[in-house]
Amino acid sequence: MTDVIAAARAANRTILSEVEAKQMLAEAGINVTETRLATSIDEAAAHAAELGYPVALKVVSDKITHKTDVGGVELGVADEEALRAACQRIHERVIAAVPDAQAQGVSVQPMAEPGAEVILGITQDQQFGPVLMFGLGGVFVEVLKDVAFRIVPLEPRDAAEMIREIQGFPLLEGFRGQPAANLEAIESMLLQLSEFAEANPEVAELDLNPVFARPDGAIAVDARILLTSES
Amino acid sequence: MAVTRERLTRALAPKVVAVIGDKKASGYNWLRSMKEFDGPVYSVQVDENEIPGIEELGIPNYKSLTDIPDQVDFAVCAVPRQVAPFIVQGCVEANVGGVTLFTSGFAETGEDIGVELQDKIFEIADPSGLALIGPNCMGLHVPGLGVRFNRDQPAGVQGNIGFVSQSGTHGMNFSLTGAAHGLYCSTLVSFGNGIILEAADYLEYLADDPQTEVIGMYIEGARDGQRLFKTLREVAAKKPVVIWKGGQTEGGGRAIRSHTASLASDQAIWEAMIKQVGAVAVHNLDEMIDVVKATLLTKRTQGNRLGLIAMTGGQSVVLTDAFEKAGWKVPTLSDESYAQLAEFFNIIGGSYRNPLDAAGTIGQDPKHLDTIFDILNADENIDAVGMELSATFMARRWQDKPEEFDRLIGSLKKFMAESDKPFLAALHPSHVEEAALTARMRLQEEGIATFPSFERAANALRKASELAAV
Hints:
The complex is a heterodimer.
Chain A: H1 2-10, E1 15-16, H2 18-27, E2 36-38, H3 41-51, E3 55-60, E4 73-77, H4 80-97, E5 105-110, E6 116-125, E7 129-136, H5 139-142, E8 147-151, H6 156-165, H7 183-199, E9 203-214, E10 217-220, E11 223-227
Antiparallel strand pairs in A: 1-11, 2-5, 3-4, 3-5, 6-7, 6-9, 7-8, 9-10, 9-11
Chain B: H1 5-12, E1 17-20, H2 29-33, E2 41-44, H3 51-56, E3 61-62, E4 74-77, H4 84-93, E5 98-101, H5 112-125, E6 131-133, E7 139-141, E8 161-165, H6 168-180, E9 185-190, H7 199-208, E10 214-219, H8 225-238, E11 241-245, H9 259-263, H10 266-277, E12 280-282, H11 285-297, E13 306-310, H12 313-325, H13 335-342, E14 356-357, H14 359-364, H15 367-378, E15 384-388, H16 391-400, H17 402-418, E16 423-426, H18 433-445, E17 450-451, H19 454-468
Helix pairs in contact in B: 4-5, 7-8, 8-10, 11-19, 12-19, 15-17, 16-17, 16-18
């Protein structure tokens, strides 16, 4: 786990790539979509064949934090022919938007079965140390700021309470025929993140956004980790 | 070296007190404030010009702490900041239990000299185990022992509220305004810069203090947030804790890359922490007083259904609005209750659906109020009872016919004694404020939870209930 951080420190980076972040999280037992780095189109095709179509492709570059904004994401790529075309499009759009992107390649991951989109996160508070956040994804977090916080370490009761504290909670219980999210799976993920935050004081900020909260479990499909400025 | 509980107890429940450096220019505030202290009080002052004034107060003065023929448990130090380290050294040598440094001008100024002096004091006090309160604070108030830092603070009354305040003003205001509401402290500490003892230390003491039934805290920031968090978790499991967080701490100006960090405002984190530990947050002195009052004077319920008694139709509507906005339900009563109410309730200019618009009915025969209380007590749809006491209509009448007010108080107290359901009253300010004030003071003396508005009553009862649910 420290290898990822050590590599980033050696390269003088504080932002981990999605692939690195997910590697750290997966090693901590947190459910993330398996995501591999491809440095060529052929490699991307090989990863996709192993992981199974459809896949998602995302540009990997230290210079880019908001991949969608620069056209660096292709979702639901159905087969190898589509993958080759999609890689080409990502390359062209990213070069146009960020000429000095110096992309390392693309990440390849299987498309996860969708569910209610939630966000789980870690930040460091000056006074209390690591803090966890939970909210619904998309506009709920960005516009309505409908989120709940707890100080690390969390007890099981804290995880249960913070999920129920947000205004949008009824949406997770199966609103208007939508399948109910597996709340226990979200609670477990929050408790795992609490341990992750305690074990990794060098993680300054983390967003799991979105996490798909489905009836059968919860899986993080994107992850961002920012390290503290000093090791 | 940690301050032992024995040392802290000597400081916070002293038998012998000394005041160091009090002077005429400050009106001998510290010495005068200790006038009601339940034990010997000594002065330490070297300035020959000040000594006669001190001796005129009848207080023995010594040139040095070590000259005092008694073992001093608690000292107040009001000397200039340059002298403070020497006084702290003297306290260590004289084995004083604890000292309050009223003296300011330390790290809070941001000046190098202030920081240096504070560090020096820390270095002297820390290895000795001296219970140092402050600096830059008002220190200690224990009404039961007559320890005060302000002459208007109560003395000779045993309170039951522990109060910890980072600010001297808010600590003082709680003790003064609280007393005006009939609320008295067991132990109040204003701890200022908190270089040796910080909030968590006082919270631990109050959690174990048998006199303290509820704890209030005013805080702006924590030196060791994780310790405060963990301590509060333990303390709030033992006693109700009400927290007023003042101010906003700067985020430190670091670059923020994630949604999580951008949303984690200081206020959001503190509110979350307060909830997480099982305390409740309040946002001003009034709310602190209200919630402490409701916690002490009303019974606890797991339910959220109110039976409400108002004096007019208009008030019964807004009384209901206020409670429902604060998360309470005002349900219909049971069929049995309605059958009983129908037998005597005056429905001309009144109604009894819930809320009960009852002025006419009670006016007809004051015994009807007892009957209404009996019905609400027995009603399974009702968990708590709130009542409007109208100063506008009644305060002057209560003044003219005190036996009517006595009878009303008798009815309220009878219900409170017989029922397990919480009871609270609202008495709004009105055009006959003098008469209303007399009524309010009396209600307070009788231990009846009375609030100056429906909204404050509803909020206080809700927060007190949240505390009980922990």
